[in-house]
Model the fold of this input.
Amino acid sequence: MIVFTNASISQVSEMYKAEIFNSKGIQLPYRILYPKNFNSTQKYPLVLFLHGSGERGSDNVKQLTHGAKLFASDSVMDKYPAIVVFPQCPAESYWANVKIVNQSDGNRSFDFPAKGKPTPAMAAVIELLDSIVKLSYIDRNRLYVGGLSMGGMGTFELIARKPKMFTAAFPICGGGSPKNVKRYAKRVKIWVFHGEADDVVPLYHSQRMVDAIKQAKGDVRFTVYPGVGHNSWDNAFAEPELLPWLFSKSK
Done:
């Protein structure tokens, strides 16, 4: 029996196969988890998870720090057979096309342009995804994406860039451009999470995205954790309904 409640990242990484994706000069490390008793003649949902800024690099391990053990736990793998991909953003790049401004009071503000070319890391992720979804054993009606902080921002941007690809998304303590919401509001089911006391990425950034999705008649859930700071991903991963909600969604 595999239990990862207090597992180290090295123990979790043994479950995920290490790979490298080459995209226009960019090397994108990623880890991929296959279902138990993987059978290439069957169809499996795909989960893409985008890590936060603190896990950037090239070691192909740090991106598993948050979330990886959830999908690799024995009970989850038994109940929800899926292919799970954790790419690692290069240290010099960022998932989302966002301008970060350091303010005089010590806080930061985030400006999300509605248009513009993807970052090298985002472009590489899109190319990686395009190659994976072509595989015969991927269920294209059940493609999911989620992420935290920088990865939450990347989640909002990715579904805006590929609105026809994804079925459901779960951005955690992220943000994005409300101007892009109409591209995916009626296509992608979304569950947004944020800590009310987040002083790294203020709650405002998720709130305005949820408001815009609702205005566009989208299907969105919003969970705010009172008194919780930036690490609201711990609360989100502990949500008993997160995975049942996610894996129940199909086009």
Q: What stands out?
A: The chain has one domain: 9-248. The CA atoms of residues 225 and 235 lie 8 Å apart.
